[in-house]
Design brief:
- By secondary structure, the chain is of the alpha+beta class.
- It is built from 8 helices and 6 strands; from the N terminus they run αββααααααββαββ.
- Strands 5-3-4-6 form a 4-stranded antiparallel beta sheet, covered by helices on one side.
- Helix 4 crosses helix 5, helix 4 packs across helix 6 and helix 5 crosses helix 6.
- The longest helix is centred in the middle third of the chain and has 24 residues.
- It starts with 8 loop residues before the first helix and ends with a strand.
């Protein structure tokens, strides 16, 4: 049993475009006897993503779609149909961004549609592979938006914020030192935590300090060039006065 479609912009466009045929229709241009015949919208979408289909025919369809978008006739059904035709090429990226960056699906879909339409509008008329150009441009731009947004987001959970493993140079580490309140008797400790720079920023170290209850005793946060040390704890005995 298949799962129901995710409620969102993509699903809404799929519902609205069901069994619709905007005019003027797209035409098949593959050099065959039937070249130039009108295509149903469903058939056109199948050909757009069929790698076994004639490359020239697929390129011609994409250029026709870009032309329909640029014409933007008042009252035309083509603007929404243009979005519908691009959904198969955008859906996988929407899922990957939502899952990897824990983004809101609706925001991701809206951004993908916007970038897709902008790429179509700027498509060169002599582009030999317009489908790849448009979809690659849209998906790459939206992926970069959420990748940079994640780098700028302050979070409390350092492990979850790390995301996928990233290779980093051994010198790229952040270091934080924490000293105890000196008036407490008995053993006290200076805790030094060294973490890869790509995993943590100063705000995350602050969140980590607060979660450990040492936020008020953090003495320094600085860059360290040492290797892959995770943590060191230095203990010293504090003598009582008198």
């Amino acid at each position: 049993m298949s799962l129901p479609p995710h409620p969102g912009i993509f699903a809404a466009v799929e519902r609205h475009r069901a069994d619709s045929e905007p005019t003027p229709p797209l035409r098949l241009c593959d050099g065959s006897v039937e070249a130039g015949v009108p295509l149903a919208l469903v058939r056109a979408r199948q050909l757009l993503y069929d790698r076994s289909a004639c490359p020239e025919a697929r390129a011609s369809l994409w250029h026709q779609i870009a032309k329909r978008l640029r014409s933007d006739v008042v009252g035309s059904d083509w603007p929404e149909a243009v979005v519908w035709l691009g959904l198969p090429g955008l859906r996988r990226t929407a899922y990957k961004i939502t899952w990897r960056f824990r983004a809101e699906r609706g925001d991701v879909e809206a951004e993908l549609i916007t970038c897709y339409l902008e790429a179509l509008t700027g498509l060169a008329t002599d582009d030999p592979d317009p489908g790849a150009t448009v979809l690659r441009s849209a998906c790459s731009r939206v992926y970069d938006v959420w990748r940079h947004a994640r780098l700028e987001m302050a979070v409390d959970d350092v492990e979850r914020a790390g995301g996928a493993p990233v290779e980093a140079e051994a010198a790229d580490f952040w270091q934080a030192d924490y000293d105890p309140v000196p008036r407490h008797p008995g053993l006290s400790a200076t805790v030094r935590i060294t973490v890869p720079a790509h995993r943590v920023e100063g705000v995350r170290l602050g969140a980590l300090a607060r979660s450990w209850g040492v936020g008020d005793t953090a003495t320094s946060v600085g860059f360290s060039g040492r290797g892959r040390q995770i943590a060191t704890v230095s203990l010293r005995r504090v003598r009582k006065n008198g």
